[in-house]
Write a structure and sequence with these properties.
The protein is mostly helical. Among the domains are: about 35 residues, no CATH class; about 160 residues, no CATH class; about 150 residues, no CATH class. The protein is about 65% helix and about 5% strand. The chain is built from 18 helices and four strands. It has a two-stranded antiparallel ribbon. It has a two-stranded parallel ribbon with strand order 3-4. α14 packs antiparallel against α16 and α16 packs across α18.
């Protein structure tokens, strides 16, 4: 049962928006979404009983579980139409049903002329609306149908029973990985050597150790991921706390600054007030410099409308606008909705529906269609006057600057990106040769300059040579040092050249590696972006597919429910016809079976009686007196005496229960006692007749062989003779079955017991023969 609140509008205040006059009331609406033909009773008792039996069968293999038999659906037979029929719902709507129709844009309305005929508006319009409640508000967990697992099978789907909607379903990447790990583990468990094989115990232990190591490594990775997630969450919480604390600090500072500003404004206001008061006092003193006392001139005050009597100052304490609320108009017709309606109804129709008439234009033309001279002169005068006014009031407007003109500064062009190309060996050799030639030319130029300078300063050189002739040894030392320095410089230049070559080569290698890496990263970025875009498209397509599947499942459920109703009606009708036919056929078959069985039983009894009679005659002819005595003794001690004891015990129990049974019989079967006695007498007569017929069939018994007198009484001999004779056994059995209980308890006890014992022995013998034949 789903109880919901329903809005019931109030007719009087349907269009009211006031709180104290609501336009609707809330009423509880009770609706039962389950159809009446569906049984709402709980049907989980049978399922629980089956589960308990399955659990007990694991510990008790001898326990038998009732086999669940499913009806053959006959998909390709008579039920084919149930599986291949298409729904009758049209699919002409390309969008879902919960989308509201957009209101079409209307063109501006043009009022028709009075003479044109008004087109009639359509009598009905079709508009799309959207309900207040959606199907998602009543969405529950997906329905899981009942299932039965065959014995000895473990479906993979049952291993995912812990996953529920919202907790693992629909399955994501983590759930898919978990399922794949479970499959791998089951496959690994299938490859494990059995425990019964002791030769592979070490291999099994090694495989289990490896698997345990892998599981621990995976668990450590999961723990690290969880720790990273927790660390990220902790960072977010700390950052959020810091932001909240900063926000609190900023709010506190703003509050403090606002309070300080208010204090400042209050102090400034007081200072201004004191300043104004002091200025008024100074102005008043300046008006009366001499200090003379003057009385108030009442006449001049009242003749001046700007004086204090007419406009007193508020700082004196008098407010001329006091008690202004007494002049407020309070009217019932203007303050309430009902008053407005009443006022509108009382006004004449001309007030609420004004009728405006266009003024008649002045006629400036004659009947013949010519313009009058006066009208033409008036128009010319108006044009001349307008031209004079424009010329008089025309002022040269200064040039205004362009409003939207802005200077666009061109950005400074960026320098070209230098590119470093690896020079070839030939170009490098040429460059070195050119550099060497430059050095030679530069050295030759310097040599020429030095030569020219030497020629110019030759006299000074000679003078210096005369003064420094004694410093030859020092010059030699300096020359040697110079040569060493030059050699070191050449070595350094060669070393720097080699280093530059190595650095250039390394830079070329690094540049190539970086170019390849950046190219790969850019391509990967583009690929990831495309993959995400494709994934987003796939998600959108999956979402649309799910929506369509949900709609299709809803339509399918409606069709299936209708089909189930029709099937149930057909089943009930067919069941009535089938039960009628079955009852008729059952009556016919039972009658035929009873008649046939009765005839076959009579024939079989006659055949068995003849065979038993022959066997009895043959045994009677071969038996001696001693064997007869032994048989009588065995019958008396093995059958007669125990049977008498059983009968006595049964009689005692029957006597103890007779009073209760008789009372119950008197209450229940009071009216049927006479019929029972009559039926018993008739049955006794029929049984006696059957006994006589049996004796006739069997014939007279053969004469018994004479025997020597023994220590037994005549009664025992007669009893033995009666018991031993086969025709007497059959007759006594028939009489015992036909006579009532009192007669059976009387004198025919011995014959009945003997007959029953012999019959039991006769029944046991074929069973033994069948067992022996089955064993062979």
């Amino acid at each position: 049962m789903s109880d919901k609140m329903k809005k019931m509008p109030i007719f009087k205040t349907m269009f009211s928006s006031l709180i104290h006059y609501p336009w609707y009331n809330l009423h509880l609406e009770e609706r039962n979404p389950v159809p009446p033909f569906i049984d709402q009773r709980w049907r989980g008792r049978a399922q629980q009983r089956l589960e308990v039996l399955q659990q007990l069968s694991r510990s008790q293999p001898s326990l038998q579980i009732p086999q669940i038999v499913y009806e053959d659906p006959e998909i390709s037979g008579r039920n084919r139409y149930k599986y291949f029929e298409r729904p009758f719902i049209p699919f002409h709507k390309p969008f879902p049903l919960n989308v509201a129709y957009a209101v079409a844009k209307t063109e501006p309305y043009v009022y028709p002329s009075i003479t044109s005929d008004r087109s009639r508006s359509p009598t009905s319009r079709t508009l799309g609306t959207q309900t207040d409640y959606r199907d998602g508000e009543a969405q529950t967990d997906p329905y899981s149908p009942e299932f039965v697992v065959p014995l000895g099978s473990i479906p993979e789907l049952l291993t995912l029973a812990t996953l529920t909607w919202g907790r693992g379903l629909p399955a994501g990447q983590a759930e898919v990985e978990m399922i794949e790990r479970a499959r791998e583990k089951r496959a690994w468990e299938a490859t494990l050597p059995p425990l019964s094989d002791l030769s592979q115990t070490e291999k099994r232990r090694k495989m289990m150790d490896d698997m345990e190591r892998k599981e621990w490594a995976f668990r450590e990775q999961e723990i690290e991921k969880l720790q990273d997630v927790r660390l990220e969450v902790l960072k977010n919480l700390l950052r959020r706390r810091e932001e909240d604390q900063n926000e609190v600090d900023v709010n506190r500072l703003d509050t403090h600054w606002f309070n300080r500003q208010q204090d400042k404004e209050e102090r400034v206001r007081k200072i201004k007030h004191e300043h104004i008061k002091a200025m008024r006092k100074l102005i008043a003193k300046g008006k009366n410099v001499e200090g003379k006392l003057e009385r108030r001139d009442v006449i001049s005050d009242y003749t001046d409308y700007a004086s204090q009597p007419y406009g007193p100052l508020s700082r004196i304490g008098y407010f001329p606008d006091n008690h202004s609320e007494r002049y407020v108009v309070k009217n019932h017709f203007l303050n309430t909705y009902e008053g407005l309606l009443e006022l509108e109804a009382s006004l004449p129709h001309s007030v609420t529906q004004p009728q405006t008439k266009a003024p008649k234009p002045k006629t400036t033309t004659t009947k013949e269609g010519f313009i009058k001279r006066t009208s033409r002169l008036d128009m010319e005068l108006v044009q001349v006057h307008q031209a004079l006014l424009e010329k008089k009031n025309k002022v040269k407007e200064p040039k205004k600057p362009l409003r939207f003109l802005q200077k666009i500064t061109k950005p400074v062009p960026r320098p070209l990106t230098p590119t470093l190309l690896r020079p070839s060996t030939r170009e490098e050799e040429l460059e070195l040769a050119v550099i060497f030639l430059q050095k030679l030319i530069r050295g030759r130029a310097i040599q020429n300059m030095m030569f020219e300078g030497k020629e110019k300063r030759l006299e000074l050189i000679r003078e210096l040579r005369t003064t420094h002739a004694l410093q030859e040894d020092g010059k030699l030392l300096k020359k040697a040092e110079k040569q060493v320095t030059l050699a070191l410089q050449r070595q350094r230049d060669l070393h720097e050249h080699k280093l530059s070559l190595v650095e250039n080569h390394l830079a070329w290698i690094e540049g190539r590696a970086l170019v390849n890496m950046f190219d790969f990263l850019s391509k990967e970025l583009v690929r990831l972006q495309e993959e995400r875009r494709i994934h987003a498209f796939a998600m959108l397509a999956e979402r649309q597919r799910r929506i369509r599947e949900a709609e299709e499942s809803g339509r399918r459920q409606v069709e299936e429910r209708r089909r189930r109703e029709e099937d149930e009606i057909f089943k009930q009708v067919a069941k009535v016809h089938q039960s009628t036919v079955d009852s008729y056929l059952e009556d016919v078959i039972l009658n035929s079976m009873e008649s046939t069985a009765e005839e076959q039983a009579r024939e079989e009894i006659q055949k068995v009686a003849v065979e038993i009679n022959d066997i009895a005659y043959e045994m009677e002819s071969r038996r001696t007196c001693l064997q007869s005595e032994e048989i009588v003794a065995e019958l008396v001690y093995g059958f007669l005496i125990p049977e008498l004891q059983k009968i006595s015990v049964k009689e005692k129990v029957r006597q103890s229960q007779r009073k209760h049974i008789s009372a119950a019989h008197q209450i229940i079967h009071r009216s049927t006692d006479i019929a029972v006695t009559q039926n018993s007498s008739v049955v006794g007569q029929q049984s006696l007749g059957d006994g006589e017929s049996v004796t006739k069939i069997l014939g007279s018994p053969p004469p018994v062989a004479a025997c020597s007198p023994l220590s037994e009484t005549a009664a025992e001999q007669s009893a033995a003779e009666v018991i031993e004779s086969p025709y007497a056994v059959l007759a006594s059995q028939a009489l015992y079955d036909a006579l009532p209980d009192e007669t059976q308890q009387g004198g025919l006890v011995v014959s009945h017991s003997a007959t029953s014992d012999r019959q039991s022995q006769a029944d046991i013998a074929p069973a033994k023969r069948e067992d022996e034949s089955g064993g062979e």
